[in-house]
């Protein structure tokens, strides 16, 4: 069943709004960050990774962002261009703000942490004036990354984008994508997450992220209660993730579809979510059944936790299909299906 | 007909959220401010004036605010206490922020301007942590002054209050109360005004203020279109003001009620709105017919533009009734009715 | 004896650098500020008062300052013009900064306090780029008010003015004028006060102000030790004040000259210092003996603590001479001489 | 001849004040930074490099600094400890400020540029309260890096250190070390550089750096005029550098000593200055003749421009002596002597 209808006449498939960053991942990993000596540089930032992911699957993506007016700004813009992402709405910062950096500490396949440079940062300079109504009118869907809500003026840029998407019938996807950095208080998180969630057609997040969102509305909801509450607003699909336990998509016809992770030898414990998002959204745009969208997302997630980067290693659809086929041959047809 | 039902079991009638300020009005008015030599000091700020107004009519009012930790903070708190307003939720600033000042320039009865001190100002320090759910649960209604939305953290405090009011069945009144100061852009104004307007039971503002609110949703609405749009959200009563042309309350049963100003010799062109608000809300709490609420508000507005202060000169109900009686005897029964 | 030689060819006598403010003094004084209802508005701020004072004595004064771009900016500029002060180097603020306000609380003739509005304030926006070398080259002396050192960019504007004064042989007068507001730490105070004191020809301050200045150099100096230390730098005259005990000018020839206050019925405990400064500097420019400069300053101080304002009531030289004559007839020739 | 006398009873040789940073140098250099994929991480920042350099020569060094409270703060502190540098006065930041990052772009041996992360940066949080008088009393010399003067509170920490060094007879070394980042205006640069230069026993900088320092005092000075002017203040040694043309030490007995660069195959065009500083100061502490100090500094500079890092590759004295010996054997005894 189709829960979301995209306006096929629109030239752009997905416009993302949020941070583009640069990741530095240690080459000599499985050591504390202080001891790592050599790093590989990659484009990073959750919505940036999803943009790359869906583009590699053939969708036409665009991006609302601010990046630094320096060599790293060049780097991410050039990379996006090379991937076929439309960069006409990516603007340079004017007051020396730098692009966010993420240094990853990979202690073991399951223990990771990140050291983020996010003070006076480029992505949070996204300005309401950067948000172009025509651009939103020409895209089938817009994805709001929750991190964009952490501070002004990016916060207002995101809220404006939501208002204009609603006005123009553009599908709104909210990827909660919580990062503790930049937020001032838990009240702020609940206020702004819930404001966007109320207007969204699709909401994606972990149980913890839904808890943060609902804190001022009703504490202690179960997944079913959360899904039901957001369905009463605008949501058609509510995806709640439980890490290694898998995730479930609750649809506004009362159905639920669950998926488990594919078995894989992980290198790092991050990057999976962006693979999941790319794969799931690709399936949705293709008009697949919900369970197939989820399976494709789960497979792409597994491929990404086994990779060194969160962007450069994103697969094309054939590779994901091949990975699924191979996994099923190895572990059985129902390997990821709950 | 009753458009709003108040929960009579709640001890507090109206909690206001927003700025408390100090007004300095020239004694030697009808001169440019630079030339005025002597000033009278009054409590001021639109929601503060309405709090005083409704208290003088016998309602039990409370206030969420931050005031300066100095003699002017003492002044406004003492004045509120004397008026019977609950000040337990009025907190002092902790980082030297000062209470807002308004120096009024009264060039003639129709030409006024104001010089505001609103940099690093106390009222905009209202913090989400100051917003107490129990307090909101115990009041029949909460009035949000739009000025509180102009900057963080007051902005989030107001949004939190709206969320908690909704959660607890407290009537939400939105007094748009636009002041250009402190706002960063027109986009911000439309974003935050419309967010609060969407959740409000009663919205009060001038045509210009509704235009600011609706700018990102739909430009160029007529009064009827504005009212209809907000009725589709939560609003039961939408009051749109046109200055000397009078104002109209649009109710969610499709009715409209219009009132004109009472004739009066004005001293200054401000202070009327707060009198209007106090009188109108008093009538509403009394359960009067809509047109009687409006007439009472209009009468109180007329009394205030003829007075030197916006707070100290606010009348009790007997005085307003007397003024209406006298005006009708002088000008006819229908003097203010459109 | 002449301790300071002024370059008589220069058209301007004294350029002051620092704050111009607006004072609001209660008309119904001898009550707590919170209870005062009516206020008189005056030009204020120590260097502004001295500028008015010396102008009324016939000196040609100029001013480096930033004032607000509003009616209060007009007020002070108009007042300065009327007094004959050159206002060509007084610029308006460009980012909404307001002119400082001082509300005075006069509890009794000896108990006063002030409530200052000094957040995001105009005078501290004075920019190094505002400091014009030609202007400094054309004035006999420049007076730096210590308050200008409290924050950037005014701090750097003052330091630049000192550097250019030194380069151009302009006499440097440092009026320490300590106000606790805006300073971040005692270390900062000592650092910047001592930097300017080292370059100054005349230093004026209370014992407490010298202690603040010398804190990082040597604590616990006596007046004689302070004077000797600054004489080893550039100072020719070091004036140290002890309130009601009187004050002493230490000159770099090893002499000292002491003066006591004139008896007077005080209205308020501030404003005296600016009268003292105006009178003393006038005598100095006239080439008087040191003790006569001090007597004239002390007399003018006495006249000012008996007045309601700190600016408008500043006397002309004839009035000061008359006051001295009258006091000596009443109390004896040596009334103020230690 | 000995131009500087160190107090041999003091346990610490050199305390440095300024930035500690982390350098990321591309492994795949000789490409634009945007295209470089792999980076080596090193301790960096000019005074940090000099601290490492002199420690490797056997001097006892300490450091006043603020570093980030994260894994990079651990990295630099651990590295310093391993090098024998006293880290008891290196404090962690308390408000999330991050350690400065320098990404180097090495296009060719002569074309380099840097991309710096210096917004809300750790080193500029050095606070006057961090500056411990006992520590300064126990060191023979203190080196102030000019970058520490770029913003408050580090600026005031540096000025306080200079005041306390002067009070306690500690030799003051000023390494101008100009970085455009963080400075607000050229006026500020001249004001603060000249304030520190006036109090310094040794001043080291390029011609351009002396021009920046002297801009508000006298423009267009020759090297001889600059040296003479600073000798009239406190300076005993003034070193003015002219890049590949070599550098000259002007001593306050009217002598001058010049040195040229050693021939070397450069890898990058930075890092030389810190080697020069380490080597020169080492010679000075050893009591060598001026020309020998310079030669040793020049040799160490040459070794550093041929190395990948600016810290890890710093040599010990034997290596520098060997380099000099080898160079002289190859190119002649006078190879670096002008």
Automatic annotation (TrEMBL), chains A, B, C, D:
EC number from the UniProt entry: 2.7.1.92
GO molecular function, one term: ATP binding
Reactions accelerated catalytically: 5-dehydro-2-deoxy-D-gluconate + ATP = 6-phospho-5-dehydro-2-deoxy-D-gluconate + ADP + H(+)
Lineage top rank: taxon: Bacteria
Pfam families recorded: PfkB
InterPro entries registered for this protein in UniProt: Carboh/pur_kinase_PfkB_CS, DKG_kinase_firmi, Myo_inos_IolC, Myo_inos_IolC-like_sf, PfkB_Carbo_kinase, PfkB_dom, Ribokinase-like
UniProt-listed GO biological process terms: inositol catabolic process
Assigned keywords, A-Z: ATP-binding, Kinase, Nucleotide-binding, Transferase
Domain Carbohydrate kinase PfkB: 14-315
Residue ranges that the Swiss-Prot or TrEMBL entry lists as coiled coil: none
Pathway: Polyol metabolism; myo-inositol degradation into acetyl-CoA; acetyl-CoA from myo-inositol: step 5/7
Listed PANTHER family: 5-DEHYDRO-2-DEOXYGLUCONOKINASE, HEXOKINASE FAMILY MEMBER
HAMAP family (alphabetical): IolC (MF_01668)
Function, as annotated: Catalyzes the phosphorylation of 5-dehydro-2-deoxy-D-gluconate (2-deoxy-5-keto-D-gluconate or DKG) to 6-phospho-5-dehydro-2-deoxy-D-gluconate (DKGP).
Protein family (similarity comment): Belongs to the carbohydrate kinase PfkB family.
Protein's UniProt name: 5-dehydro-2-deoxygluconokinase
